[in-house]
Amino acid sequence: MKGVLYYHIALAVAFGLLSCQHRQDSHNELTVWSSNNPEEIAFVRKYVGKWNEAGYQGRTVRFQPVPEGQSSEEVILAAVVGRTTPDIYMNMWQGDVEDFARSKVLIALDTLDGFLDFIYDRCDSLVVAEITSHDGHIYQVPWKVNPVMLMYNPDLFNAAGIAEIPETYGEFLTAGRQIQPIGVWLGISEVNAIWWQRFFNFLPLYYAASGGAPLVKDGKAIFNNTHGIEVFAFLQTLYSHGYFPKEQMKGQTDPFLAGRVASTFTGPWTIHYNERFKPDGFRYGFHTVPVPEKTTSPVYTYGDPKNMVIFNTCRDPQSAWQFMRTMLTDTAEHDFLTLSGQFPRRKDLDTHSMFIDFFEKHPELQVFARQALYARGMDSEPYMKEVLDLISQEYEACVVYGIKTPESAVADAARAVELLYLRK
Amino acid sequence: MPYLVHVLVFVLFPVGFSFFLTFHNWNIIGPMEYTGLANYKRLVQDPLFFTSVRNTLVFLLLHIPLQLILALGLAVALNRQVWFRAFFRGAFFMPVVVSRVVVTIMWQQLYGFETGTINRWLGVLGMERIGWLTDPAWAMPSIAIMATWKNVGLYIILFLVGLQSVPPSLYEAAQLEGAGKWQQFRYITLPAIAPTTFVVVVLSTIGGFSLFIEPYVMTGGGPLNSTLSSVLYIYKQGFFYYHMGYAATLGIIFALMILLVVFVQRRFLEKNRP
Questions:
Q1: Does A368 reside within a domain?
Q2: Residue B246: which domain range?
């Protein structure tokens, strides 16, 4: 028994010594994590290789995809708690940044040489304001954006006698009346009261209706306005009239590709899936999400942006920023777009000569490039997951089950959100 | 000594640290902030806490009687000489060894409103479709039915052991005295298997209080929080919102509630043991 105990103690000591040795070797090394997307991995590997060949000030870069977990956010949280974060992380959800910034686990990038000139050159003032934290610092670099749009089946719309894709709430509801007789649903969307499911219904519609207004600001629920109520009312009508099903139809043939629903709210990542699984001759297209009748502003949407950050465990943030910079040049972003079909979040995406030839070869992605200029991310406020969860509770009660009016549901959500910020 | 280390590291420290957390706010990545009794005050004013406790009790009130009746009935049937008895015993036990997540996903398909097998059969019989997981009135009963199906095999085995320990001479004597099947069951079988019944009830209760995977996978706690169990609510507070202090408070209070229920259950069942 004692022998077994001593053996295990010796093993633990040896393991600890080996770990120390690894840390010493990695002193001149920067670690970078990306998402698990195969095309992104290929892109980052290419630029890591180029950096290591050039040998910038003796710093090498070691790359790995984010370790497997239930979600990448949970993996990053575990890494922060265990202080095993990479130097650079390339798939940070914008809604988490403020929480990490307030806990001081991120480097303020605007304190690094060359950052401010770069960010004002890359992004317009609205995006810069969006990514600026409460303390006035910027902790994230907007990297890629995947705008949520209306994906539609033109053949089903034509069969119902709908010549043009509906752009307003009234036109959309009329389309629902016309489509019902041919035995298909007008659309389908997520109904559960889970926070991230609002990315595909409430959030894009709210941004479209409000011209990109925030959800919360300085502890106040901004969404408690005409736009928030109109969106709830519109979505409630879709379910109460039976134009959208409450059931999700998971675990069976995709209902859109099976021709059982005429539309859904989704992003460009769906194209790859559609091309792989669609039946022969199946057609689909993308359009802006519907807006209230009197909307005059450009049609915004939720862009699900993912950004790059540097963690405070990084010993050389300036070199880390220099490496990030190499992946954000015009050439690199053209490579990224070509390899992955994901859109760099930059203000000249649809006008820069570098990208024009790509969109000429891929006209089906032009609509996303135009929409990407009007794509919003998450507010730079803490507790955004909880805010979306509180909105989701009221969304379920009002929109899906019709037991609350839009006015009372939005007001109750706003009250709960403001109480949340007061309690903190 | 090794056992003491195990208890210290895996039992006493986590419980002690949880209790310590109940007096703090902590989002796991920032510093802890002492808040006194604020988490307890929040708990008594939190409507979702009471909703989760009510939902868990509803689940127990549906699941335990259903489990008892089904397990005992099937055990009595399988205790006789029937054709393919060994096959049926194995078949009823099969769901026990299948992963809960797999069973949950399978039943999600069965419960589908538009295309689920159960609603299709209801349609064939000329009945209205039921929103098994989309109707707040049906969602928790649906989960209770599924949980019963998943676990009944284990309790059948326990009851079988109990039934086989009843001396056959008691039944013979009762038969000679003119007792019918129901009277034999009521006056011989039930009292004889009382200790087994007690074990089944306590195990079902403890298992029922830990209801988490089924609502987490199937419904996310909806519709309208009708399947939000206490453990799921604790999980959401701790691992969705990172309110570690409040989650610890919920956990401590919930653990005390379970202890109280099991204590009351034990007193009641022991008092009524013949």
A1: no
A2: 47-271
A250 to chain B: which residues are within 8 Å by CB?
108
- Pairing state of beta strands A141-145 and A306-310? antiparallel
Q: Residue A150 has which token pair?
A: 């209306």
Asked whether residue A120 falls in the same domain as residue A101, the answer is yes
Tens of pLDDT along chain B (274 residues) come to 788 888 888 989 999 999 999 999 998 888 899 999 999 999 999 999 999 999 999 999 999 999 999 999 999 988 887 788 888 888 889 999 999 889 998 998 899 887 789 999 999 999 999 999 989 999 999 999 999 999 999 999 999 999 988 888 888 888 888 888 888 888 888 988 988 998 999 899 988 999 999 999 888 898 999 999 999 999 999 988 889 999 999 999 999 999 998 888 878 776 665 5
- Asked if B223 and A401 come within 8 Å (Cβ–Cβ), the reply is yes
**Closest Cα partner for A231 from A130, A303, A301?**
A301
User: What is the residue range of A55's domain?
Assistant: 2-139+306-344
Domain holding B159: CATH number?
1.10.3720.10
Q: Pick the residue of B110, B134, B135 with the most A CBs within 10 A to test the interface with A by mutation.
A: B134
**A193–B109 C-beta distance less than 8 A:** no
Q: Tell me how far CA of residue B93 lies from CA of A61, B71, B102, B147, in angstroms.
A: 53, 11, 16, 13
The structural domain count of chain A equals: 2
Q: What is the pTM for the complete model shown? A: 0.85
B241–A386: do the CB atoms touch at under 8 Å? yes
Tokens encoding A297: 């502003």
